[in-house]
């Protein structure tokens, strides 16, 4: 579906966001995890990562998971990002890029 007008694009993004929020709440309810959505967003906003280069090796290092971050990842069935990831070695595994190697998300 293509939207060209600003108000339609905003509307489409809002509908997608509401669908995502609804799906997350449903997953949390299924797993008996009770997290207020505003606290979830606050905790996830604290998650940061930085790329380091040491002795020609590149690493991606993330902060500790705050508050309900771990429960959130667990509820939706996603492994939390590794705390230290060697980017030099991890770019390919069996000629495939691993699912967790997406440094632009951090």
What does this structure look like?
The chain is α+β, with helices and mostly antiparallel strands. The protein has one domain. 42% of the residues lie in helices and 14% in strands. A three-stranded antiparallel β-sheet has the order 1-2-3. Strand 1 and strand 2 (57-62) form a beta hairpin. The chain starts with 5 loop residues before the first helix and ends in a 16-residue tail after the last helix. Residues 100-106 have low confidence and may be disordered.
Can I get a quick summary?
With 106 residues, the chain is of the alpha+beta class. Helices cover 42% and strands 14% of the residues.
Keywords, separated by commas or semicolons:
106 residues; alpha+beta; three-stranded antiparallel β-sheet; 4 helices; 42% helix; 14% strand; disordered C terminus
The secondary structure category is alpha+beta
- Uncertain segments are 100-106
Q: What proportion of the residues is helical, as a percent range?
A: 40-55%
Quaternary organisation of the protein chains: single chain
Global morphology: flat
Query: Helix-strand pattern, N to C?
Result: HHEEHEH
Mean pLDDT: 80
Helix segment tally: 4
% residues in beta strands: 5-15%
CA distance, first residue to last residue: 28 Å
Rg over C-alpha atoms, rounded to the nearest angstrom:
17 Å
> What's the total count of β strands?
3
């Amino acid at each position: 579906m293509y939207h060209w007008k600003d108000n339609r694009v905003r509307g489409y993004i809002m509908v997608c966001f509401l669908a995502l929020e609804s799906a997350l709440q449903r997953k949390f309810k299924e797993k008996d995890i009770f997290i207020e959505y505003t606290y979830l967003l606050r905790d996830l906003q604290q998650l940061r990562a930085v790329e380091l280069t040491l002795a020609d090796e590149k690493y991606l290092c993330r902060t500790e998971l705050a508050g309900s971050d771990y429960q959130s990842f667990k509820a939706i069935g996603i492994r939390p990002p590794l705390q230290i990831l060697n980017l030099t070695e991890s770019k390919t595994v069996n000629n495939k890029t691993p699912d967790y190697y997406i440094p632009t998300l951090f």
